[in-house]
Specification:
The complex is a heterodimer. Chain A is of the alpha+beta class. Chain A folds into 2 domains: 28-117, Cyclin A, domain 1; 123-218, SH3 type barrels (Roll). Chain A is 31% helix and 16% strand. Chain A contains 8 helices and 6 strands. Chain A has helices at 28-41, 48-56, 60-65, 68-82, 88-93, 109-117, 172-175, 193-197; strands spanning 123-124, 137-140, 159-169, 184-192, 206-212, 216-218. In chain A, strands 1, 2, 3, 4, 5 and 6 form a 6-stranded antiparallel β-sheet that branches. Chain A is globular. The relative contact order of chain B is 0.15. Chain B contains 11 helices and 4 strands, in the order αααααββααααββαα. Chain B has 2 domains: 26-53, no CATH class; 57-201, Nitrile hydratase alpha /Thiocyanate hydrolase gamma (Nitrile Hydratase, Chain A, Alpha-Beta Complex), CATH 3.90.330.10. Chain B is an alpha/beta fold. The chains are: A alpha+beta, B alpha/beta. The interface between A and B is large, with 94 and 85 residues.
Amino acid sequence: MNGVHDMGGMHGMGPIQHEKNEPVFHAAWEGRVYAINRAIGAWGKWNLDASRHEIERLPPADYLRMSYYEKWLAGRTELLVKHGLVTREEIESGKPAAGSAKATPALTLAGVTAALARGNYRRVDPKAKARFKAGQHVRALNLNPAGHTRLPRYARGKQGVIARHHGIFVFPDTNAHFLGEQPRHLYSVHFAARELWGATASPRDSVFIDMWESYLERL
Amino acid sequence: MQGHAHGQEHGHDHDHQVVPSDPALRTKALESLLVEKGLVDPKALDALVDAYENKIGPRNGARIVARAWVDPAYKKRLLADGGAAIAEMGYEGAQGEHMVVVENTPKVHNLVVCTLCSCYPWPVLGLPPVWYKSAPYRSRAVMEPRGVLREFGVEVSEDTEVRVWDSTAEIRYLVLPERPAGTEKLSEEELAALITRDSMIGVDKLTPGAKP
């Protein structure tokens, strides 16, 4: 979706505010939101792409106003309700519905160490033949899907060169909408800064963007 | 309940949250609901917070970089297959499953961003700083990397190539910074102490006297 989350190349966002000796969490609630996310994710009701998309779907003014963990809190609360782990009424009252059964947590203290060491591997067994190889010239398609995509706006329609083949990966554009993992080849594509931003960009600079095969056409 | 629970939060100047107590109260209410419903274990939450506050952070990445500086065979493995070489050092887990390490040299300066959200290599750098997740960095790093670097106090000469890595998929990038001159006699541990988080994102250049 062409949302405000797709920020590459926007103007007017101001200077970068670097904080010296920044704490991991600025307040206790931020750490709790982070941890709740990991613990509720363990129920396996949604996936990483769906949780990213839920945040993208926040109203644009809220997206820009909210801090990172406020966005997580809002997005994960929506997912909990959408996937039936809690009801809207329970969120509002703060109490479980009368007579509701008590579950056993999907992630308990005993499971945390293993959960931290375990990744969510998204590269799948490569069987399909890759269409592109390193050095080939490609163009990013001008796609404007209303749903989730990882093709940033600033690269659409631009020409680049395949820099490396990463393997076959789960496709976020379908996975975020529970339409299946539909894995496909993923490449690092090298775009000259001048192709992306015009003649004022440095001729030496470039951006590498990871792109799935279906985002690309051969030149 | 108009909140004034801002007491512990003084002293940082970024626009962090508009109504400080509101998300704190909502988070507390959500956690207690989830605990009452048996959906989360509060002790598991404590352990997760502790892990990212105390164990999983940029010191992990610094150990990898220091190893690469002193051990050419390790550096070769790290650049060829970042994930395997990082796993050798014991760092694995969420948001570090598919690692690529890019090397800074006098000719090439690498910079990492995620323009679409805030993707970041958690097992080696921990959770991202606020600026990395902010609109200014995400909007500008791809379009004017040299201006961004200048704001961080890093000058890159005109004949150096700047490569920006936009983390649009599940590949996570770690910058292998240049080893500062004059550090030939330092041990691996002393070298690790010089390496800053920002240098591994690509927004800092290390100098021998630098402190993380």
